[in-house]
Amino acid sequence: MDGSRDWAALGREVIAIEVEGLLGVAGRLDGAFSQAVELLAACRGRVVVTGLGKSGLVGRKIAATFSSTGTPAYFLHPVEGAHGDLGLIRPEDVALAISNSGETDELNAIIPPLKTLGVCVVAMTGRADSSLAQMADVVLDARVPREACPHNLAPTASTTAQLALGDALAVCLIELKQFRQEDFQRCHPGGALGRRLAQPVTAVMHDQKLPIATPRAALSQALAVMNEGRLGFLAVCDEGRLLGVLTDGDVRRMAAAGRLDLSAPVGDVMTRGGLRLSSRQTAAEAMDLMEARQVTVLPVVDGQGRLAGMVHLHDLLGKGRFKFAP
């Protein structure tokens, strides 16, 4: 070990190089950045962040920051995407693809399928003339003059620039969406989740436009109602009283067994009785029952057995009024 080397001086030099890169990125922010902010803010689905290697690690952090500040996002590994995980993508999603070179083969391979699915792609890259940039709808310039690595190889200044650009996007989205302190607390449930689960289940349940059918309705009509409700769940009621339920899992099992008769009355194929919650129970009790029985939706009934609402696991976790994609 070289004890004569001034390591503090080298550390200052590294930080200076990274500051140089950040100042360059900041000075080049232009209409493309504004366009990216507006595109992400208008996203009706989720922001799909993707990248490989060090850029992928940065992407995971960006996705986490987005999700915790009011912009639902998740990280998609490009290799996993090419092997089936593109099935998670919906046309209403927006992709943020990160690559310093813009020539990462595994990442670029999934961009055309994303575009085919109707997804808008924002590229964050250090090369505006790269293959990734040419395929993207919006290009964010993350170019830095040099890496802090003495061989100009290890991603250092470039990943710092990517991380800062991600933070800049997140903060702009906070302002644009008027994300408040109480919203932040809801997304950070270290204490908020406990307070939420202490509430009565009626405070977090769905109680409007519930997917309900009578037992005499044909299964085809009942499935149309269940699809419209987008909870993967249908309550079968007679004059308000809950008789049974039908789930998307029930339908899949009937189809797999060759027993799917769309003309049959839904009352003949529903699960009679079934799990239910009392309107007097707490959200914590609802979560305990869901965990014990491995279900994600439960009906809530009043003292006379009449349907009062439905609660989804995501509502208990504070993720808003969850809906299955149509």
From TrEMBL:
<dbReference type="Pfam" id="PF01380">
    <property type="entry name" value="SIS"/>
</dbReference>
<keyword id="KW-0479">Metal-binding</keyword>
<feature type="domain" description="CBS">
    <location>
        <begin position="205"/>
        <end position="262"/>
    </location>
</feature>
<dbReference type="InterPro" id="IPR035474">
    <property type="entry name" value="SIS_Kpsf"/>
</dbReference>
<dbReference type="GO" id="GO:0097367">
    <property type="term" value="F:carbohydrate derivative binding"/>
</dbReference>
<feature type="domain" description="CBS">
    <location>
        <begin position="270"/>
        <end position="326"/>
    </location>
</feature>
<dbReference type="Pfam" id="PF00571">
    <property type="entry name" value="CBS"/>
</dbReference>
<feature type="site" description="Catalytically relevant">
    <location>
        <position position="188"/>
    </location>
</feature>
<protein>
    <submittedName>
        <fullName>Putative signal transduction protein with CBS domain containing protein</fullName>
    </submittedName>
</protein>
<comment type="similarity">
    <text>Belongs to the SIS family. GutQ/KpsF subfamily.</text>
</comment>
<keyword id="KW-0129">CBS domain</keyword>
<dbReference type="GO" id="GO:0019146">
    <property type="term" value="F:arabinose-5-phosphate isomerase activity"/>
</dbReference>
<feature type="domain" description="SIS">
    <location>
        <begin position="36"/>
        <end position="179"/>
    </location>
</feature>
<dbReference type="InterPro" id="IPR001347">
    <property type="entry name" value="SIS_dom"/>
</dbReference>
<dbReference type="InterPro" id="IPR050986">
    <property type="entry name" value="GutQ/KpsF_isomerases"/>
</dbReference>
<dbReference type="InterPro" id="IPR000644">
    <property type="entry name" value="CBS_dom"/>
</dbReference>
<dbReference type="InterPro" id="IPR046348">
    <property type="entry name" value="SIS_dom_sf"/>
</dbReference>
<dbReference type="InterPro" id="IPR046342">
    <property type="entry name" value="CBS_dom_sf"/>
</dbReference>
<dbReference type="InterPro" id="IPR004800">
    <property type="entry name" value="KdsD/KpsF-type"/>
</dbReference>
<keyword id="KW-0862">Zinc</keyword>
<dbReference type="GO" id="GO:0046872">
    <property type="term" value="F:metal ion binding"/>
</dbReference>
<keyword id="KW-0677">Repeat</keyword>
<dbReference type="GO" id="GO:0005975">
    <property type="term" value="P:carbohydrate metabolic process"/>
</dbReference>
<feature type="site" description="Catalytically relevant">
    <location>
        <position position="106"/>
    </location>
</feature>
<dbReference type="GO" id="GO:1901135">
    <property type="term" value="P:carbohydrate derivative metabolic process"/>
</dbReference>
<feature type="binding site">
    <location>
        <position position="77"/>
    </location>
    <ligand>
        <name>Zn(2+)</name>
    </ligand>
</feature>
<feature type="site" description="Catalytically relevant">
    <location>
        <position position="54"/>
    </location>
</feature>
<feature type="site" description="Catalytically relevant">
    <location>
        <position position="147"/>
    </location>
</feature>
